[in-house]
Each structure stands twice: as structure tokens, then as C-alpha cells.
């Protein structure tokens, strides 16, 4: 786990233990108030969205 990261919108340091929302694709960090907005880094994903990950085999769906 990182010791800190930087909010990609406000450029504020987010210390360990504080609430953080992340982009599921890029891993960019944001303050919780930006949850649900479009990620500024990837421009295609929703901040804080829970995702399953890449599925490439029919066996993975069983």
C-alpha cells in the first residue's frame, strides 16, 4: 500500500489512512467527493467504480 498519493483534480497530498477513491483502470487517486465523475487520467472510467477485471476465457465465467 502506498504511503500517500496525490488527488488528480486538486493536486492535494492524500495521506495513508484517509479516504481515497481510485480509477479502476489507471489507479489514479481522488478525494471521495469526486466519486462517480469521469477519471481525468483515463477519460473513460468512473472514479470509485467497482469492476471485475478482464475476462478472456469462457472457463472464468463458471
UniProtKB/TrEMBL annotation:
Keywords in alphabetical order, please: Signal
Q: Which domain of life is it from?
A: Eukaryota
Task: Give all residue intervals belonging to the Coatomer alpha subunit C-terminal domain.
Answer: 7-62
Q: Which GO terms describe its molecular function?
A: structural molecule activity
Q: Name one Pfam family in it.
A: COPI_C
| Any one GO cellular component localisation term in the record | COPI vesicle coat
Full protein name? Coatomer alpha subunit C-terminal domain-containing protein
Record-annotated membrane-spanning stretches:
none
InterPro entries reported for this sequence: Coatomer_asu_C
Signal sequence span is: 1-19
**Its GO biological process terms?**
intracellular protein transport; vesicle-mediated transport
Amino acid at each position: 500500500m502506498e504511503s500517500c498519493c496525490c488527488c488528480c483534480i486538486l493536486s492535494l497530498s492524500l495521506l495513508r489512512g484517509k479516504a481515497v477513491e481510485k480509477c479502476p483502470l489507471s489507479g489514479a487517486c481522488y478525494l471521495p467527493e469526486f466519486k462517480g465523475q469521469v477519471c481525468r487520467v483515463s477519460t473513460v472510467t468512473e472514479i470509485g467504480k467497482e469492476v471485475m477485471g478482464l475476462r478472456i476465457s469462457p472457463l472464468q465465467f463458471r
